[in-house]
Amino acid sequence: MPYGPHTPGDRAHMLDALGIDSVQALFEDIPARVRSDGIDLPGPEPELTLAGRLEALAARNRVGLTSFLGAGAYRHYVPPAVDEILRRGEFYTSYTPYQPEISQGTLQTIYEYQSLIAELTGLDVVSASHYDGACATAEAALMTVRATRRQRVLMSRAIHRHYVDTTRTYFAAARLTLDELPTLPDGTTDLSALEAALADSERPVAGVLLGHPNVFGVLEPMSEATRLAHAAGALMVSVVEPVSLAVLATPADYGADICAGEGQPLGISLQYGGPYLGILASTQALVRQIPGRLVGRTRDVDGRRAYVMTLRAREQDIRRDRAASNICTNQALCALAATVYLAAIGPHGLRDVAALGAARARELEKALSEAGVPRVHAAPYLNEFAVRIEDAERVHAALLARDVVAGLPLAQWYPDDPELRDALLVCATETTTSAEIQRFATALAEVRS
Amino acid sequence: MPYGPHTPGDRAHMLDALGIDSVQALFEDIPARVRSDGIDLPGPEPELTLAGRLEALAARNRVGLTSFLGAGAYRHYVPPAVDEILRRGEFYTSYTPYQPEISQGTLQTIYEYQSLIAELTGLDVVSASHYDGACATAEAALMTVRATRRQRVLMSRAIHRHYVDTTRTYFAAARLTLDELPTLPDGTTDLSALEAALADSERPVAGVLLGHPNVFGVLEPMSEATRLAHAAGALMVSVVEPVSLAVLATPADYGADICAGEGQPLGISLQYGGPYLGILASTQALVRQIPGRLVGRTRDVDGRRAYVMTLRAREQDIRRDRAASNICTNQALCALAATVYLAAIGPHGLRDVAALGAARARELEKALSEAGVPRVHAAPYLNEFAVRIEDAERVHAALLARDVVAGLPLAQWYPDDPELRDALLVCATETTTSAEIQRFATALAEVRS
Amino acid sequence: MTDTLEQTTKIPAGEGSGTERTNRELEAAARENEISTPDRDFTDARGAPHRGDGMGPRAAVGPSPQPTLAELSRPGRGDGKLPHAPADALDAIPEEQRRARPLGLPELSELEVIRHFVNLSHLNYAVDTGFYPLGSCTMKYNPKINEWAARLPGFAALHPLAPDTLAQGTLELLYELERMLAEISGMRAVTLQPAAGAHGELTGILMARAYHESRGDSERSEVIVPDSSHGTNPATASMAGYTTITVRSGADGGVDLDALRSALGPRTAAVMLTNPSTLGLFERQIVELLDAVHEAGALAYMDGANLNAVLGKFKPGQAGFDVMHFNVHKTFSTPHGGGGPGAGPVGVGEKLVPFLPSPRVLQEADGSYRLERSGERPTSIGRVRSFQGNVGVLVRGYTYIKAHGGSGLTQASEDAVLAANYLKQRLAGSYEIPYDRACKHEFIATARPLKAATGVRTLDVAKRLIDYGFHPPTIYFPLIVDEALLIEPTETESLETLDAFADALLAIADEAREDPETVKKAPHTAPVRRLDEATAARQPDLRWSPMTGAESPCPT
Amino acid sequence: MTDTLEQTTKIPAGEGSGTERTNRELEAAARENEISTPDRDFTDARGAPHRGDGMGPRAAVGPSPQPTLAELSRPGRGDGKLPHAPADALDAIPEEQRRARPLGLPELSELEVIRHFVNLSHLNYAVDTGFYPLGSCTMKYNPKINEWAARLPGFAALHPLAPDTLAQGTLELLYELERMLAEISGMRAVTLQPAAGAHGELTGILMARAYHESRGDSERSEVIVPDSSHGTNPATASMAGYTTITVRSGADGGVDLDALRSALGPRTAAVMLTNPSTLGLFERQIVELLDAVHEAGALAYMDGANLNAVLGKFKPGQAGFDVMHFNVHKTFSTPHGGGGPGAGPVGVGEKLVPFLPSPRVLQEADGSYRLERSGERPTSIGRVRSFQGNVGVLVRGYTYIKAHGGSGLTQASEDAVLAANYLKQRLAGSYEIPYDRACKHEFIATARPLKAATGVRTLDVAKRLIDYGFHPPTIYFPLIVDEALLIEPTETESLETLDAFADALLAIADEAREDPETVKKAPHTAPVRRLDEATAARQPDLRWSPMTGAESPCPT
Ligand SMILES: Cc1ncc(COP(=O)(O)O)c(C=O)c1O
Ligand SMILES: Cc1ncc(COP(=O)(O)O)c(C=O)c1O
To answer: Which chains have 3+ CB pairs within 8 A of A?
Structure first.
């Protein structure tokens, strides 16, 4: 056993104390019919060779390419201070702070996380973390159902495809209705369709969900959508990319009730999809409906400031089948990463991240359009946009052969939409360089000549 | 200022308190004639682009080749537990434990380092670290001079070339004599030459230094050499590779008085040469002569076990020009790395490291000799040995073009020795694989055909 | 704000809710403790927070309370990470789409950030600092090679939408991990996507629903769970649109077979069993239980959170379970991260394979790997999350399984069970052991007799353990045992540690008799003492007051 | 063992040796404190060390004393890192060359190893946990990007003897760093090889010797240092075979020009000046001092440990210094590592370039880099160490310099000097400031009046600072000031921290008058109280007793 401390003598001592000869005696309550004798896997692998195996596997991934992939996961500069803190055993080898007296480190960092996300979103109640952006969005949709006691939500088709799919999975199970809202040619959600859907008084709407920026990178008419939703007694859910909040109107600015989003851009590495950070925030009015952990500030018996998990009657371990969600283990360490990231990068830094991404994206748009590859949509965008190019999948593959990842072929997500059959979703961040943009343009020219 | 906390307001507050208008007032004591106005370097570079620059520089180094380089620095498997501890700010951002009450972490780890090296070498007094193997060797040589009040040491030419050169530099300064001992064709030091040199009563010898294994990887007749040295009233210094001590006779076994060596193999990464770890140990009799830090165990006024720097009257900050050495800042964090490494790898593990290296080296010897490339020396070796190959430098370069680093051409270090003109010093460790050995042999066949 | 929910429900004292205290009780407790001292401030006359001010002498080394980031913030601090964006970067963003309110993030130098979090870390207990016998959570050692592996740039920097050809290393690892988990569990196939145990439960129950519906069997609306089950089980049933039916446990701690039989029926979609149970006991009637479930046409779900007890000894798939989840962060040693992340892969038997969530990892004829394309397998329940799972956690789990191999995993279970039984034996004199038979990896002890004799409750014992240098076990869970302590030593703690922990619990039992007040007021040596949880819930303070925001000139 | 050396010399109380105490005094002190309690043991009846045993209740969170690795060791523990070697691996090693004694290393599980060192780390004070105003040591913040950079595999895994073609990245970095240091210092060329400041001093003085000898000027046998100099200066002179001549400082803290002039002569090889001096003062007569040195035909060495004060303000090379060293671990923020490693590059003026140690880093005509070959430059003093230097440290220094750029470095010095003067100003009322003029990055305060009035010494003040949460400044150094406190705040500490520190020192001055005993017995809140240093020196216990060794069967 590579990490076990027990010597043969230790085991003998324990068996002795138990008055048994063999540890097998402790497994005799497993009925013989279902008892198995071992696992058919190779024996222990020493760390030396295991490390070699892992290095070889990691090396088979190719991560150094010129890439314009975003679509819900973004490469950013992460100050090494973040990992320095994440590597501290006191944080990463502890668990849910059930014993607040010896968990103030975790508790205060969660409180700080809640506060920072509250600052970013303008919403006062922040759940201490959900699995990812998709699950947070699904939970947000479920929240609107619980809060309004209505059974139907409207979700723009221009929300991240995975989030719509995930919410659909959750909703199908709970026998709730999810209707998708169409988009206009400019890339924004069709508000007249929204208005029409809200008008159906037979099927009252619990919540309206829009992405901002949406999956096409486009800014949505959030204020107007919120006005329509509220007028129909529905709650407004904004699905955001958190870095954009440094420069874009916040959910609170346009009156949204709930905000969901993917926290990965806040200092969390790409890792092929996880662990990431599901952000979920709401107005104070919805504090009883929000699922997941909440930490509150209080005092100890000596009056010292202290933090503790609170309003726990929403949670599964207390409320069981009437809990707001089944969530237990969450993404606490990722929330810590976001907390350290935001503290280390600061308000000026975060604004620079957002604005630099925008500037680089504009540079990219220019280079591509000069290469004869125009945008698909006309509405304003921040740092991600779709371009139209004939034979997009083939071009994408040809560019890949030249070590350029030309974003995401949107046909993968919208196979039935002729508008998007020839679209590539491309993105820039502060890490994108002019040289990379040039390489893209050059490769494109080669591929198309 | 990227890491400074001072806002313009903070600076104004401080200037105010000092009653001055500008910080320039604080520099007016610098005579105008020698005052400079700034540094002609580019402005601050944001971390984002600086990180890119550093990654690009690091990528220009090629570290993934099949390499048989050793010659004083060795690639080993380092359990990640080591770096986990080294990354703790409590260790790496503290300094010399001048205030023992709040430095027990550093102090106890040094005490543990001393104890572990004592276990390895069999010698009871271990200095808390020197700069590297070369400097530790030079300090050992100086120790013999101080202890015997003689002015001449004998050093085998088969000690690591850099150690001999460094000791020569130190000795030249102090006007002391360093004579090199020749080697025999089998790779060991010529003991009859030693005997003769010791017999020169005009120039009495303070210390005799041999490497074990020596620079050719060969085991020296340490017992016999020690006997001769002691018979002449000289001290015996053994220059060791610490991993080898897991399986080889220890300095204490053969009666050496002092042991010096390079601690890099004990969990420290290669880093193009440093920071490494100069190991220096001696018998109890020489405790007053040993340079560098010593930590001792004692108690506090409540009787609690505690650790403190001790016997400090040997050190420069107390003794000034009569100190045993000028060393102040040492390699403490590297000593911590060695301490964690030894604790994590354990006695069985260290023996495996040594024995696996030996086994792989034997496999390498076999493969090379089958390829018609025989050993240069006949004496037993552990995991490093010299082979003879015609046109060694050219072959080495040709192999390099095939991504094989065929060890070190010994002509670089012994340009005048015809025996070594065509020699390559090659080494294997537990990280060397059979596939790598095969690649070497294959490339060799290609190059020579 | 008054939280009406909190007024009508109960607030747990500590973990679980066996002996919940109402707000009223908590308030009374608070009054009793005379909480009146004002919140000690971290700011000085200049509004500057710092150590040492207003709080008198305090130790240089050791835990000390920290101000918040907001209190540390000074406008104009912190910079140098990024080049400044060109002034026109946002010109294309319409005015009304721009952020209106100030961006109120704290401004700190990097040193302040590091010091803040390093000092906060010193307020935490963790596996890396001491024994953490939190029952049901398997707080075993987290090997450091796992952390190293997950941070290899090839793994860490891989974009989740990278074309398959760029992701062959990770895909191979995931593919192999699925197969290893299948072998370990005896299940037919595995999905690695769920982010945690509860997420796995939901995924599993959704597959059960899909299975029944695929067969036109759509009247099944109930999920049965034992009363000892973890809260996630009933909560999952609700999320999946099912009604929860709870069956009681028998006197021996096992599920009451008769009770289960009478609860089962044509409306039963699934039965969720935890085995070994949350009492640390193996269901001795597991064969009969499974037969009963299947006879009713229901599916058997195994909550595999406790798999650490039976690796190599019991394979749920072979025994007849239709679906189960793993807790990678328990059984396979990935760290708990202060609450997460984990990973909750789900294994299924043949019947449920078609319903696995998408995308699966597939191997092509040429040996290469690819992700299933969206819509490729219409029977799938669909996506349960974005992308492919908590891959960084799975890399750690893979590493752990490889390091142990089949025999090592079996040994781990044997050692975990041996340690638990040994510890149980050592405590038997002073604490009541309600289920007096061989336990698996954890066991229940109770302070019931102690409470009767001295008034000292399980909560007090737990808090007093803190003064002895230990993290308390899980308390007041499962709910069916009064004054429960659920103790899980794991296989990675030495005999000396087990003995020291037993000694401490025995010493506390003695103290309870000799000096109950000391125990009731514990902890005495922690960074803070018992908290006013009532006020926390009545007047929730969930964030610092909004910051003025970064109106300061950008530092240079 | 009786240490006769210790009997005849003095043992410092704390850092430096201004007020040394003889063994006799220390012994008396020890008696006074009645050290009689036996060493508290970490082992139980079974010989097992563990927390909580025999030491009564102790905190779960916070510093606690740890047993040694040897005490934790149990034969048979720890394994799994490496495959076992074949049985015949060592057959070729002659019997008499094999290790005879058991290999007595501790045997522990990895968890025990991690927990041991994590808990030990909690006993340490560090820059990352608090303010560390240790004069002369420049304990500034260590940016985390530096740590990241040094660990990039391309840097970290490069073999020191790798052919130049494989090392172009590191060689370029070193080449550029040399040039940046030359610009910063005004020196002509730089060697990066020395491992620390003292090593740089030796290298520099050896070059001075080589220079004189190259000119046939071989009668020079003396090195002059001021009485305020750091101990490494005279120790270096001795190592280099020179006699040290000490000149006194003037009343204003500067070197006494007349004293220097009379000490200078044809026997003077070099004068080592620290500027700003160890008193934190710039040598206002630097021009005259340098003229005097050069007139005597001697070389001027600048100890650049205090360069952090004058970046962009003063370039030693331009001013006329012939040779100097840098302390990368002070000026350029590389961490101090609990005592090291550092790096001590040496800059030289034109005259000394030929003597630089080998190998230098050279640039070829095609822009590529290479190391000088051995023997390529016969004027070199030769090697001063193995390989190329503490490259890992130099990568950090390079990163720091780049992050700051020329203007950032200048700003760093301005801020460091401003902070020091501000702090000096704040303390002026309660402590004596012996040199009443603008200081540079550090300054001297003394508790002399306090001692006269209350008996409370600098040592006591320092120890009491620990109770206030701060690391004490350097004390009793330099030797020429009675009861000296050498305080260096650095530029990376916030105004709030500076104020809190000043408040603490002022509060201690008050305490000294009102309650001197509390101050004299401090610290009260540290993991241990004052130590019995006398016994430590009289009966040195420098290692644990030899272990029995690994006779246990190899674990599997
Ligand atoms: C028995 C049991 N089931 C389910 C869960 C839920 O797992 P997770 O916390 O990973 O969601 C847990 C863990 O807390 C558990 O102990
Ligand atoms: C003034 C002065 N000179 C020289 C040194 C020696 O430097 P190092 O400790 O790096 O050897 C120091 C550092 O302690 C110093 O402060």
So the answer is: B, C, D
Ligand 2 centroid from CA B328, angstroms: 7
Going by the DSSP 8-state scheme, the letter that residue D65 receives in this structure is -
The identity of residue D371, as a single letter, is L
CATH of B80-341 given 3.40.640.10, 3.30.930.10, 3.90.1150.30, 3.40.50.720? 3.40.640.10
Report how far residue A307's alpha carbon sits from residue A106's, in angstroms, rounded to the nearest whole number: 9
| In chain B, domain spans | 66-74+346-448, 80-341
Query: Which of D323, D304, D333 lies closest to D197 in space, CA to CA?
Result: D304
Chain A positions in Cβ-Cβ contact with residue D110 (cut-off 8 Å): 2-3
Query: pTM to 2 decimals?
Result: 0.95
* Segment (H or E) for D290: helix D286-295
Supply the ipTM of this predicted assembly.
0.96
CB contact under 8 A, C120 and A1: no
Just give the CATH number of A66-74+346-448: 3.90.1150.10
Cα C220 to ligand 1 centroid, rounded to whole Å = 25
> CB-based contact (8 Å) between D552 and chain A?
yes
- How many CB atoms are located within 10 Å of the residue A367 CB? 17
Ligand 2 proximity of D342 Cβ (cutoff 6 Å): yes
CA angle A253, A257, A262 (to 5 degrees): 85
Task: Determine, for residues D76 and A8 on separate chains, whether the beta-carbon distance falls below 8 Å.
Answer: yes
Cβ distance C83 to B8 less than 8 Å, yes or no, reads no
Cβ-count burial of B87 within 10 angstroms (0-12 exposed, 13-18 middle, 19+ buried)?
middle
Q: How far apart are CA C140 and CA C335, in angstroms?
A: 9
- A1 contacts in chain D (CB < 8 Å): 80
User: D45 pLDDT exceeds 80?
Assistant: no
The answer, yes or no, to whether any atom of ligand 2 lies below 6 A from the CB of D344, is yes
Hey, how many other C-beta atoms are within 10 angstroms of the C-beta on B40? 9
> What is the chain D residue with the closest CA to B83?
D151
Cβ within 8 Å, pair D80-A84: no
Residue B222: closest CA among B246, B198, B258? B258
B81 closest CB neighbour out of C60, C144, C555: C144
pLDDT, averaged across chain B:
97
Q: Contact A216/A425 with Cβ under 8 angstroms?
A: yes
CB C273 within 8 A of CB C299: no
**CA nearest to C501, candidates D177, D533, D44, D285:** D44
- Over the stretch A350-359, which tens digit does the pLDDT of each residue have? 999 999 999 9
Q: Chain A neighbours among C 72-111 (CB < 8 Å)? A: 77-79, 81-86, 88-90, 92-94, 96-101, 103-108, 110
Residues in chain D with CB shorter than 8 Å from the CB of C467 are: 57-60
Q: Tell which of A7, A47, A84, A340 to mutate to test the B interface (max B CBs under 10 Å).
A: A47
Q: Enumerate the β-bridge partners of residue B408.
A: B425
- Topology of domain D410-528, CATH: Aspartate Aminotransferase, domain 1 (3.90.1150)
**Helix, strand, or coil (residue A325):** coil
Residue B330: strand, helix, or coil: coil
HSE value, Cβ hemisphere, 13 Å, CA-based, for B400: 18
Query: CA A7, CA D552: separation in Å to the nearest integer?
Result: 10
In the CATH hierarchy, which top-level class contains the domain C146-403? Answer: alpha beta
Cα distance between the two ends of chain D: 42
Ligand 1 in reach of C328 Cβ (< 6 A): no
**Residue A412 corresponds to which amino acid?**
Q
Instruction: Tell me, letter by letter, the H, E, C secondary structure of C211-229.
Output: HHHHCCCCCCCEEEEECCC
- For A147-205, the pLDDT digits (tens) are 999 999 999 999 999 999 999 999 998 899 999 999 999 999 999 999 999 999 999 99
Q: Which two tokens stand for residue B293?
A: 């830090």
